[in-house]
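quick one if you have a minute, typing this from the bus. theres a chain ive been looking at and ive put its sequence and its fold in token form underneath. please have a look and point out which stretches look like helix strand or loop to you. anything you notice is useful, everything is just below.

***
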Amino acid sequence: MSDKSFKLNISLSRQTWEKRTSLVKLIKIFTDAKVDIRFIGGFVRNALLGLPITDIDFATPLLPNKTIKLLETAGIDCILTGVEYGTATAKVEGETYQITTLRQDISNDGRRAKVKFTDCWKTDASRRDFTINAMSANLEGEIYDYFSGYNDLINGKIRFVGRAEKRITEDHLRILRYFRFMANLDFQPASVEAYNTCIEHAHLTKSLSGERIWSELRKILSLSSQIKVIEKMINDGITSHFLPQNVSTKYLVRIYELANEHPSLNAIVDQPIVLLGCLLKDKKINIEKIATKLKLSNKELGELSKLLSPDTKMNSKMSKIELNGRVYRNGRRQFLSKLVLSWAMEKEKNNGSKLNDDTWLKLVEKAASVKEKVFPVKGRDLIERGIPEGPQVSDILKSLEDWWVKNGCKADKIACLKRL
């Protein structure tokens, strides 16, 4: 069957890409060389849905070494991190674009594939995860759809290309991507069988790197309108392979509600660690174990530990002195996260009551405006006053700092040193 038989009777507007000078420059390199190249995957999907386009990827029959030579001859910098899989990343005017040679996956261990390059567009499309990601578009905007992805797109269905089990065993991350696309696009499973296959094979996610799991999970958590998808993942045992079994969405629901009712909170709520903390709060968990599993950075681990510490529970009628002290101890950004989580916890306890919302909101606004203070006394200040170096300096410094915090973080160095 010829490639033309898979061409749709709709096209993408060239304006979709011709406004980007870097993209036009890159395309010209291939057209001048008379090399076939198409937009692939998410670019086509999002363009058809009218969604923002972030990543722009290309596919071409040109072999990787020839693609790299073509780009370098044109003065384009290439990043070769995926060249063994046929991918070269071109850097044009500060923008990056992935260009991958058409290929067939010969074998796969669930994480890495052995590939064979091809010149067949349908063969390349057949290795894609979902039908909605298997479409391509040429430089005239003509769309090629080998597996009825457009029908699934307009009908709001998520469907594997081919058998679900085969796709999942090729790359275990596709289980999480399945749920992520359900959430991101508000799509439904095209078949119960495929959905159940994801559940039955969820244990395979254990072999994935923590970075890949966290990358998908943080994207799912950020989709506030799709709490039902997260609940499905928990109830059907998907998350139990990388999170504790007793996680709950109750605080996540409340914090999403707060962000919806008070848009000024979005910058606080829209932090992956805050959303993860909502799932884990009030659970007996080993934070370090979770951080290791998800390969959280040291900064993320520190933020999560503070967020889940027992003193997270706060009173909406907190005094200004206490507010200043907590902002100092936590840092404003971290304190605001703890404050909003405490608000969500109270809201859950009171079955969604808005009775104290105004008080909480004013407290958040006050905390956001508090200037972060710096304790004015250093260890050398004590040594200069005759206190011998050693543990005594640390003990006195801590005692002074505690007094300074207890009194609203206002005293200057002179006032503090008078306490000696």
